[in-house]
Amino acid sequence: MVNNDMTNTERRVLEAAIRVFVRRGKSGARMQEIADEAHINKASLHYYFRSKDRLYEAVFRLLFQEFSQILRPVLDPATPPPDAIKQVISIYISQLRKHPELPLFILHELSEGGESLRSVVREILMEKNAEVPELLTMKIEQGIREGVFRNVDVDQVVISIIACSVFFFIGYPMVSLMKPELAGRKEEFLDRRAEAVFDLLYYGLKPRTEGES
What we know:
213 residues, mainly alpha, globular
């Protein structure tokens, strides 16, 4: 839990809100449905979150803060760059296994214009709590300086790390159609996913020996 002052009820409300917002989108979600999902009455819901807009932004704030809290220690300058990249990939995938609805929740927000997401990101940036993309960029640059990564387009690598970690959770319905045999062994596949993504990216980053193109 990111906020030590958050009550169990508040946490339950936020997790219920994510599920409802994924199903309905912000415009279609109703506070009564969120209250029912959280197993509290509507008056209690309004006590914690006075409006749907405040609840919606609180969900995004929680998500960004949780990921930031977990990822920032891994990206400490003392962590060797290959180890840091491996841990970042593992954290992304393990967190999304716990909350597979999160990518769709964010996509719903973006499909509705993304203003709430932009508002929360701006606030967190002002509070200096959103350092993860910058720290990840710096970690890759550190690897280049130290010679453990070749000279690559750092922005491309950052996007590739995030995309390779997140896509399966967004695209699973399509993936299961293209590869129906995965449907019965989804968890087994995800057990190996972090290692597979790291191998793919690391051997693309690793300096090439003479004669390799």
